[in-house]
Amino acid sequence: MKKTLFFISLLAITVLNAQKMPKDPEISAYVDAVSKDSLRANIEKLVSFGTRHTLSSTTDKNQGIGAARNWVLSKFKNYAKNSGGRMEVFLQNQDLQPDGKRVNKAINLGNAVVFLKGTDPSDNRIIIISGHLDSRVSDVLNSTSPAPGANDDGSGVAAVIESARVLSKSKFPSSILFVAVSGEEQGLLGAQMLADKAKAENWNIQAVLNNDMIGNNSFDAKKNEGTPKLRVFSEGLSAFETEKNAARTRNLGLENDGNARQLARYVKEIGEKYVKNIDIKLIYRNDRFLRGGDHTPFVNHGFTGVRLTDYYENYDHQHQDLRTEDGIKYGDLIEFMDFDYLKTNTAVNVAVMANLAKSTPPPVNVLMDVKELSNSTKLMWEKPAAGTAKGYNILYRETSSPVWTDKIFTTETTFTVPLSKDNFIFAVQSVSSSGNESLPVIPKISR
């Protein structure tokens, strides 16, 4: 009995220490480097193209989607000079014919991309941050009327560009892909093109952070409501799962523990750790009700993706012709932006990407021993496929908790937790030498 009490006391100390792990000063420096002035300048330039509609001109040097994507590429090329040759800038494009839906003429679809190659040749993980370059007004096929798209989705693209600037000098084991996709308003066309490429080439995508409207938090917000909120949407069960996997998930009670949910929890934990004055809300849907975003083609291919977006949407300034009616000004204009809020949300992305890219890959072959009935839980795993982990966190929470509540740090690859698997959910994550955590891995069953 004394031995058991001593073990539980030691466990409590280990958990407490793990929960109070200090911030990584390198990541804090990246977060502090995010500039509100830079974000504002990016959006002012994006708005200056008149319209960025996917069906607008790709040849005009000053107006339309072509001029906009060329400017984004020029920004990427400028930041690539800081990377020591590790940043590759390119335009992923293809010609599309009319589809009888939201494309009524032949177009050249293009994604502006910069790939920051990781420093570890054995680590093939890729982290993607995206925003959509195209804008629209009330008529989804109107490609000529002014469509400033300041928030939808100038804010997401500005965050992508700023993240590329801030992280261009970084030297992470994992790679990061920054992309301004086109064709979102016409049916997620650019994201689908990129997701198809990733699937065909078997990319090891660890996370897709899709930022779509992250620059306006004022609409419908109650006065003195307190901390600004950022929504993170994530699916529960992957549509990519087979019936067998779905049955296993249901049998083990893991409906709330798919890969996207683990990424969403990670965004909340790391974002709130490094960034002040933000309340990250986990929304248990792949996207807003009956709507979709650019992470969806990736999750449909089995990749892990989430959407980050304003907590409050202002429909007067979204998908609207520019006009004033009954004293109300309509349109997605820059005057309705909240740049402090955009800076905060961009910093969340930077913190999450840096922490994840700096981590070692997750442990592999994570198992839970169920050979015998017990009120304790034995977990086993193997070292990551690349890099060197200084140890591992065992995460746990009650089944009703939306987030991981406790961590146990160990340098071993086997650990017995004095808690019942009936009452708790468990996961294991790698911890790098600098203290950066990988995404958690839910154990499989070992009999």
Helix/strand layout:
Elements: H1 2-19, H2 25-33, H3 36-47, H4 65-80, E1 87-96, E2 107-116, E3 125-132, H5 154-167, E4 175-181, H6 189-200, E5 204-211, E6 229-233, H7 243-252, H8 259-274, E7 279-283, H9 296-300, E8 305-310, E9 323-325, E10 328-330, H10 339-358, E11 364-369, E12 377-382, E13 389-398, E14 406-410, E15 414-417, E16 424-432, E17 444-446
Parallel strand pairs: 3-4, 3-5, 5-8, 6-7, 11-17
Antiparallel strand pairs: 1-2, 2-4, 6-8, 9-10, 11-12, 12-15, 13-14, 13-16
Helix pairs in contact: 2-10, 3-5, 3-10, 5-10, 8-10
3D structure, described in words:
The structure is a single chain. The chain has two domains: 25-358, Aminopeptidase (3-Layer(aba) Sandwich), CATH 3.40.630.10; 363-445, Immunoglobulin-like (Sandwich). It has ten helices and 17 strands. The protein has helices at residues 2-19, 25-33, 36-47, 65-80, 154-167, 189-200, 243-252, 259-274, 296-300, 339-358; strands at residues 87-96, 107-116, 125-132, 175-181, 204-211, 229-233, 279-283, 305-310, 323-325, 328-330, 364-369, 377-382, 389-398, 406-410, 414-417, 424-432, 444-446. The longest helix is centred in the C-terminal third of the chain and has 20 residues, at 339-358. The relative contact order is 0.15. Mean pLDDT is 93; it is low at 1-7.
